Each structure stands twice: as C-alpha cells, then as structure tokens.
Amino acid sequence: MAQDMTLLWGSGSPPCWRLMIALEEKSLQGYNHKLLSFEKKEHKSQEVLDINPRGQLPSFKHGDVIVNESYAACFYLESRFKSQGNKLIPESPAEQALMYQRMFEGLTFYEKLNAVVYYEWYVPEGERHDSALKRNKEALTAELGLWEGYLQKLGQGSYLAGPSFSLADVTVFPTVATAFRFGLCAERYPHLAAYHAALKERPSIKASWPPHWLENPQGQDTLTHI
C-alpha cells in the first residue's frame, strides 16, 4: 500500500503538510517521499512536472492514480483506506456538515494568511503598496476573529468540527500553525492558541512537523501586531 505511494513535498507548505498528516492518520507510513526546495525552484523540475503539470507541491501518486490537490488527496486517502487508521469523517450529519464547512472556509483562511506573510514573495517590488498590505492585514485580522469565535463557541478541548478529530483539522491546522510560526499573538487569540498547543502534540502532527521548523524553532514576527 504505502510502498506504492510517492509524495514530492516542500517543508513548511501547508498543502503538503495536510497530505502528510492524512497519511499518518491513515497509518500509511513508509511511503516514498522526496523533499524539494521552493527557493531552488525544484517544484518546477521535470520530476514534478511528470506528475503535476502545474509544477506545484504536493505532487502525489498512488500506483497509477495521481491526486495532486491537497484537499482531493485527503478525501482520496480517507475514502480508499476507510477502515485503516483513524476515521477522519464523522458519522454525525451535523458534525460532518460542520467539517465540510470549516474545511472549505479554511481555503479562505489560507489565502488571507498568504496575502500577508508572503506579500513580498508574491508581489514584485515595483508593484508593492503599503495600502494594499494594510488591506490584506485588515482582512486577515477579520478572518482570525472568525476562527477564534468558532473555537470559543465549540468550547474548550473541541476540534474544528466538534468532539472528533476530522479532515477539518487535517486541512486547517497547518494554516493555524503557520500563523503562529509567523508571530501570531497567543494572548490576543487564546482559543486558537489553545487549539494549536493541543494539536501540535498529536502523533500525526509531530511526525510530519516541518523539518526546517525543527532545525530553527524561532519563527518570524510578521503577525505580532495582527
């Protein structure tokens, strides 16, 4: 099973991390994997393009099946290995509905986070404007407020869709962790901070923690004042 899988990935990439958490949760350790460098443009190499013509990471192959989009790959693994490892889609219709809702809201969260922390990466120097970055920061602040409120409403010790760890956590936790890596204030967002602190001890998340974060635990301060 896992021996038939190949993952090309980048350290610290939330889409890659989502898939790696899912693989751990489904007890699919031992898959073939290769760490590539975004800085060296290795995601545009022929090795990646052969699997993923978009030249993006993750690039994931299981036998003859290719599923590169991280959400799609997580759904695929849960469907294909339903009875293996941990169940990632709740039985309760209400909890399941909330899981889907939070998963897809998570894409907006990820997009708004990237617009701030990677602003200089994505926007050429001549096209950068302080007013645009200010708008991006305001949008991210509003987004963080939503997630803080979601967790507050669910209560202490809850996961994103209720009492069960689910695909909502698999897909959104890497975005939350990235926010704290870039200096998000735990005192300002106590419920997000408690969620982050609890889940980072989960075996699947510890096993897939970005290696360069382990090498350099000190993050950045981009979000300190958000």
From TrEMBL:
InterPro entries: Glutathione-S-Trfase_C-like, Glutathione-S-Trfase_C_sf, Glutathione_S-Trfase, Glutathione_S-Trfase_N, GST_C, Thioredoxin-like_sf. The gene is LOC114865586. Residues 92-218 form the GST C-terminal domain. GO terms for molecular function: glutathione transferase activity; maleylacetoacetate isomerase activity. Residues 3-85 form the GST N-terminal domain. PANTHER family: MALEYLACETOACETATE ISOMERASE. This is Glutathione S-transferase A-like. GO terms for cellular component: mitochondrion. GO terms for biological process: glutathione metabolic process; L-phenylalanine catabolic process. PROSITE patterns: GST_CTER (PS50405), GST_NTER (PS50404). It comes from the Eukaryota.
